[in-house]
Amino acid sequence: MTVGQILGNGPAVLAFDVGGTDTKAGLFDDRGSLVEVVRVPTPYSTDGSGDAVLAQLGVLTERFAARHPDVAPLAAGLIVPGLVDDDAGVGVYAENLGWRDVPFRDAASSALGLPVAFTHDVRAAGTAEYRLGAAGRFRNVMVVVIGTGIAGALFLDGKPYSASGFAGEIGHSVVDVGGVPCACGGNGCLEAIASAGAIARLYNRHASVPVAGAREVLELARSGNAAAASVWDTATDALGLALSQAVALLAPEAIVLGGGLAQAGDALFTPVEERMNSLLTFHRRPVLLPATVGENAGLVGAALGARQRLTEVKA
Ligand SMILES: [Zn+2]
Questions:
Q1: What is the per-residue DSSP string for 22-45?
Q2: Where in the chain are the domains?
Q3: CATH of domain 13-126+295-314
């Protein structure tokens, strides 16, 4: 989903998805169509501030204004990785980008001269899935994005739940006590076993011919490679376990799986659902749904946030 009417009619808005490697910027017009997406490298901050990122947002905004003078955005949505306090509008911490306690919402609003909505990248993608995707008919939904890492977004009783940015970190719930080290400093986290990055890494530990990604591990498993099958099975078991615990605690009606690994389709969904259900008894069993908004879900969520922000500013 890169063009076409995505959001529906409303104000034109800007959306910025600042990632660990690249920043994506999008311009949505008043029909809700994504007019253009630009991708540039994210500048690393050496001084702990977000100044380099903020300067880049200004440059991208000017570029859109020059190329699309007929589209006048009235607000912007900004999303970043790491630990994000939505209510305070602060990027608390992002290890791989070098910033700490950056008041992104207000700083971006000053830099761009527009109202800015600010949130975590996975919560924005989750919002896009919840508002526009297949899970929209439910009130209790967990969206889990499985890519380089694993993170979740929660919607409880129809509302987003972030707990000052600490909620949703299902990737760092331990599924194997004392297991393989995780980037967070822990051991045996779900992310260290079942993320796309981890699946490739764990296969490569004992492989004579290393693979580039989880997709190749799955292909090897399908062709009868026992080591690859073991890594894949361990990952889907771990996902099923972690989801069963989330079900016991939160009782979501639907769990949406997105991110690169979800493109494996039935090879992921079938064993994860079987494992999860094998661990549940009286619990309400959620439906597992694939994410449907696509690769720009973060941008779409940021744009939804920007339009929402406009209604708050007017109120
Ligand atoms: Zn961890």
A1: EEEEEEE-TTSBEEEEEEEEPPPP
A2: 13-126+295-314, 137-290
A3: 3.30.420.40
